[in-house]
Write a structure and sequence with these properties.
By secondary structure, the protein is an alpha+beta fold. The chain is built from 10 helices and 23 strands. Strand 17 and strand 18 form a beta hairpin. It is globular, with a radius of gyration of 24 Å. The protein starts with 7 loop residues before the first helix and ends in a 7-residue tail after the last helix. The N terminus is likely disordered. Bound molecules: arginine and zinc ion (ZN).
């Protein structure tokens, strides 16, 4: 749709005649991406979503998903057109109740043209009706939706939303969620937050979940399958819902011995990170062949492979640490991944020390010593690893090493003040590596530029002095094996 540009002087006289608002400038399409240099097409411009209401129906046998998504959003420019990121087949789109034209473009853009332009700063309601077989849809040659023996799982990073709901798919646009899923009776549907209701009718059961604190799109999760569900409450009073696939076999006991410690571990972490930011807790272990875990908000996703060689509370520590570092304080851009993964790994080191299985310094020494100077490990800069190395082991291990170096530089008092103050400073928001450096400098009163450069950005093994005491090769800390088990991150 084209809009006339009117010279400001002429505006007053012609605006009535043309029946355009007196402020009319040009209404233009929102950008196809939100502006992330790692992933230029991810997210979109021109609006900001505040809430997703997803009403879904899923058939495990055929992998058919059908749904209606209602988005509440506010425009951030005068919009003639805007995109959502989505892969399934859309049958109808309405904007503020009025049918809108739509088409697809690029790898995952749903392009929506409302009948009239949308002025900047207005609240809009977008309804999208859709259906499809998510496992049959690919973008960039891959699918992350997993069709399992008895259901499906949507859990991946950065890409998972495209296969099950239309969104502004980038952590910069956080929103609250209602997820209501109808599944055949006897099958369960798991998502984020609190379970509001469960209703059965005509052979189908509807699970209604609500996540009522800002949540990034990749942290929204859906799992359908035959689960055994356990409930409880942390000592601090947060309700817990865990779910274990009934097909876990010999990994079932180890999974439960780990995930059932969710309340205890979340309470323990709040001693370091401050109050838990949400009103629900839990974890789920679906029947999937892939190996990674993911910090899906309030209710992390754990692959059964994390428990293949026995109980692994360390991975629970990792994913729950993300609830503060990564979920509550989200990335501004994907290059800022260290403010998420570096700290989740460091939390595992703190847990190791707590369990008497090796101190954080011993684990740091171990990482430092186990990678010789010519190891490619040191060429990855955790502070800006590039999209191909976003989940490289260096982001985790070198990233945590950098945190130990910071601790040694500023001392325990300042360090633990930073660790606890950071989530509160940016709660429910977004931040960058640069923001973190600035904050640590403010709290410690030190210039940390050289330290951050050395440990997070230089493509070389740092000289040992800053991390200190890295003289002799340390003995293998007992917790090393468990931490290694959580390293299994997969590329698509
Ligand atoms: N944030 C996840 C974790 O550290 C990593 C997920 C990476 N996996 C992947 N398939 N991209 O637990
Ligand atoms: Zn992680």
């Amino acid at each position: 749709m084209h809009y006339r540009v009117i010279a400001p002087g002429a505006l007053a006289t012609v605006s009535l005649l043309l029946a355009v608002p007196a402020f009319a400038a040009t209404y233009t399409p929102g950008a196809q991406g939100i502006g992330d240099p790692y992933y230029p097409a991810y997210g979109n411009g021109g609006y900001d979503v505040s809430h997703y209401d997803l009403r879904l129906r899923y058939q495990p046998v055929t992998d058919e998903l059908e749904g209606t998504a209602t988005l509440r959003a506010r425009t951030t420019q005068d919009l003639s057109q805007f995109d959502l990121d989505f892969l399934l087949n859309v049958s109808e789109v309405r904007v503020n109740g009025v049918e809108a034209a739509f088409t697809t473009s690029g790898e995952h853009e749903l392009v929506i043209t409302p009948r009239t332009g949308l002025a900047k700063g207005t609240d809009i309601t977008v309804v999208v009706r859709y259906r499809g077989i998510p496992s049959s849809k690919k973008a960039y040659g891959f699918t992350t939706w997993l069709h399992t023996a008895d259901g499906a799982v949507a859990a991946n990073e950065p890409e998972s939303a495209w296969w099950w709901f239309p969104s502004n798919d980038h952590p910069l646009d956080k929103a609250t969620y209602d997820v209501s899923v109808r599944v055949p009776e006897g099958t369960q549907a798991i998502s984020n937050g609190r379970l509001r209701s469960t209703r059965s009718r005509g052979g189908w059961t509807t699970y209604h979940w609500r996540s009522d604190k800002p949540q990034a799109t990749y942290l929204a999760t859906l799992a359908v399958g035959k689960f055994d569900i356990t409930t409880g409450k942390s000592e601090s009073g947060i309700p817990i819902i865990n779910a274990y696939s009934k097909n876990l076999g010999d990994r079932d006991a180890a999974a439960r011995a780990s995930v059932e410690r969710t309340g205890e571990i979340a309470d323990w972490l709040s001693g370091y990170f401050g109050p838990y930011p949400y009103n629900a807790l839990g974890g789920y272990v679906p029947d999937v062949p892939t190996g990674f875990a993911l910090e899906t908000q309030t209710r992390p996703y754990y692959s059964p492979r994390q428990f293949a060689s026995g109980p692994n509370p360390s991975v629970v520590v990792h994913e729950l640490a993300h609830q503060w570092y990564g979920d509550d304080v989200s990335l501004k851009g994907w290059k800022d991944i260290w403010i998420s993964e570096g700290f989740a790994r460091y939390a595992q080191w703190l847990w190791s020390e707590h369990e008497g299985q090796g101190t954080t310094q011993e684990l740091a020494d171990k990482v430092y010593a186990s990678h010789p100077a010519d190891d490619a490990f040191w060429t990855v800069a955790p502070g800006d690893p590039g999209p191909d190395n976003q989940f490289d082991i260096a982001v985790y291990d070198r990233g945590a090493l950098a945190i130990q170096a910071l601790r040694n530089e500023i001392g325990d008092d300042a360090f633990f003040a930073v660790l606890k103050g950071w989530p509160q400073k940016h709660t429910y928001g977004n931040a960058s590596v640069a923001d973190f450096q600035q904050y640590a400098e403010k709290v410690s009163g030190k210039d940390l530029g050289p330290l951050f450069d050395t440990w997070l950005f230089e493509p070389a093994k740092p000289a040992g002095r800053a991390a200190a005491r890295m003289s002799s090769l340390p003995a293998q800390p007992e917790s090393w094996k468990q931490i290694e088990a959580t390293n299994e991150v997969h590329k698509h």
